[in-house]
Amino acid sequence: MPTIVHEFAWPDRVIVGTIGVPGERTFYLQVRTGKQIVSIALEKQQSALLAEKIDEILDQLIKLEGNPFSIPTSTPVELVDNDQLEAVEEQFRTGTMSLGWDPTTAQVVIEAYPLIDVDADADADAIEESLDEDGTDAPEMLLVRMPVGTARAFAKRTREVVGAGRPICVLCGYPIDADGHVCTVPEV
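^ that's the sequence the OP posted. Answer follows.
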C-alpha cells in the first residue's frame, strides 16, 4: 500500500499548540494551507527538540561562509502567531521525525511518521523484514516545508508553548502538579 503524504510546500500556518491543562496537555503540530488542515500529536520532548534543532540549523546557516540566504537572527514580528490551534482532528501520533534543509527553495523541511505499534511478542527478524528500506512502513506521513522566517517564528512559539507547562521544583527538578508536590530531593 502506498504511503499517504500530507504535503505542505508553502503553508499558510504551521504551529505547535496544546489541548488540556498543564500536566495533562496533548501537544499538536498543526499545519494549514487554505482549507487543508493536518494535526499530528507529539510528545512535549519532541516539540522542544524540534524547536531546538530548527534554531540550530538556522544559526549554522547564518555562520556558513558564502551563505546566499537571508536568515533572520530573531523572529520577524510579522510572523508571530499566538493564536490557538484551529479545529483539531488528530491525523496520527508521531513516532519518528526528521529535519532537514532544502537549499533549492531555502526552506526547513520536517518529516513526521506515525508511531508504529510493535507486538511485544514479535521477534526482531520479523519486524526488520516488515520495514521498508528507509526503515518505515508508515501508511502516511506529514511533509512540511517552511521558509526561514516562518521556521524561526515556529521555533520561538514552540519554546513558549513547551515552557508554559507546570513549574519545575528548584530542589528536585521535577514538575510541580497543581494538586501538590512531594519533593524527592536527591541525597548528597
